[in-house]
């Protein structure tokens, strides 16, 4: 079926905003997406009608607890979890990963080993690096292959030992866009007796996640990257998290997932989280999927991924025509199933920020810099202080927006080169 782009765009009020009569083109999505009206309405409705703390016996506290329960159930459907008990919701992915790293540190001892990749966002690197410093752990670094742009199974297998306790890896890169073969990598790590912690922040807006099929032990994502509010989620396999003792208040609940969710929850944001997931389900229903919410979510990704891939091809084809421009990531259309629609590039002799500033002035929103992909830029030899130009597509973008963006890239680069003469 044709992707219902106009119907989708009508659901996002921000897409119709202008600045002094100038349209906005949102290509900043790897750093955060816009939200449907339904998400904003859910947050507002919670604050105005069910604003209470949890644990009481009056109407608003009972309703607030239902919002919390609904959010955990919605995320379980979104990730394919066995139970809402496996869903831990908190401030953001980085904060939750720090919390989980310290909890897992209680099971480790000096000399134990952890494997970190050169492909990960710093939110899945620094928590483990600092844990290693605290506990005297050995850190083994896993580089990505600069031909495939992925973590290769053989490279992981070569690093594993009988002292490996944890492998932290990402599902998709926030700089190159490459998708790793997480299921295969997880199988190798688990066979060696290691736990696997997956950062799926960049993959979650673009593909259906099935945590049970992946076989990993933990998977983290961020709601504000998939059209929801600013909060993070960690899925943990039930038998693994039930055996852990997190840092928490002495008198707080020992139940799951409450023992990992510190303090008063962000109840209004949980209302928005459920609405974001229901947005995916509604998109799937509009594509004639009338099964479970999980099935409808799956259908929404089926149609949106195909649409995003068409926009990605248009973008990459246009960028590839510019001399001196290097795309850092997969460019073969036959392999677009192995990448998300995040495209980063550099241009010989031009600092990325100068390109981005010019395009931002034209109300084309995108980013420059290392974007917390600290290890990637160092492996590729890109100056961290400059980084890359990063363009990120969401399924609410249009072909016309990509055309306009490409025209701007061509024109801005030509202008900057002329200024250098």
TrEMBL record:
Gene3D superfamilies xref list: Aspartate Aminotransferase, domain 1, Type I PLP-dependent aspartate aminotransferase-like (Major domain)
All copies of domain Aminotransferase class V, residue ranges: 25-403
Keywords recorded for this protein, A-Z: Pyridoxal phosphate
Keyword Heme attached: no
TM stretches of this protein: none
Pfam families, sorted: Aminotran_5
Name the UniProt record assigns to this protein: Cysteine desulfurase family protein, VC1184 subfamily
């Amino acid at each position: 079926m044709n992707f219902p782009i106009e119907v989708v765009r009508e659901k996002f009020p921000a897409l119709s905003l202008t600045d002094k009569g100038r349209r906005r083109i949102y290509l900043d999505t790897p750093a955060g997406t816009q939200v449907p009206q339904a998400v904003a309405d859910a947050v507002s409705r919670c604050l105005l009608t069910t604003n209470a703390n949890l644990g009481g016996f009056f109407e608003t506290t009972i309703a607030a607890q239902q919002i919390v329960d609904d959010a955990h159930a919605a995320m379980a459907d979104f990730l394919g979890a066995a139970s809402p008990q496996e869903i831990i919701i908190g401030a953001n992915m980085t904060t939750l990963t720090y919390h989980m790293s310290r909890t897992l540190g209680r099971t480790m001892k000096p000399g134990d080993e952890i494997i970190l990749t050169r492909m990960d966002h710093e939110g899945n690197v620094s928590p483990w690096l600092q844990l290693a410093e605290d506990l005297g752990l050995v850190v083994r670094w896993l580089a990505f292959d600069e031909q495939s742009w992925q973590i290769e199974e053989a490279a992981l297998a070569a690093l594993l030992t009988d002292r490996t306790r944890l492998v932290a890896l990402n599902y998709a890169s926030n700089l190159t866009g490459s998708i790793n073969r997480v299921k295969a990598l997880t199988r190798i790590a688990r066979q060696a007796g290691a736990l696997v912690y997956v950062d799926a922040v960049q993959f979650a807006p673009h593909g259906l996640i099935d945590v049970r099929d992946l076989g990993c032990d933990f998977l983290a994502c961020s709601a504000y990257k998939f059209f929801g509010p600013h909060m993070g989620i960690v899925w943990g396999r039930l038998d693994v998290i039930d055996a852990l003792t997190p840092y928490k208040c002495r008198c707080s609940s020992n139940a799951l997932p409450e023992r990992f969710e510190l303090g008063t929850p962000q109840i209004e944001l949980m209302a928005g989280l459920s609405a974001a997931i229901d947005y995916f389900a509604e998109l799937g229903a509009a594509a004639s999927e009338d099964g479970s919410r999980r099935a409808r979510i799956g259908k929404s990704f089926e149609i949106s991924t195909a649409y995003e891939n068409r926009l990605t091809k248009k973008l990459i084809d246009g960028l590839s025509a510019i001399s001196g421009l290097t795309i850092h990531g997969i460019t073969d259309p036959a392999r677009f199933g192995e990448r998300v629609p995040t495209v980063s590039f550099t241009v010989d002799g031009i600092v990325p920020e100068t390109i981005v500033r010019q395009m931002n002035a034209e109300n084309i929103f995108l980013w420059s810099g290392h974007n917390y992909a600290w290890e990637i830029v160092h492996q590729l030899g890109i100056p961290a202080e400059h980084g890359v130009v990063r363009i990120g597509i969401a399924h609410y973008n249009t072909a016309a927006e990509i055309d306009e963006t490409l025209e701007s890239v061509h024109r801005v680069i030509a202008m900057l080169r002329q200024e250098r003469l």
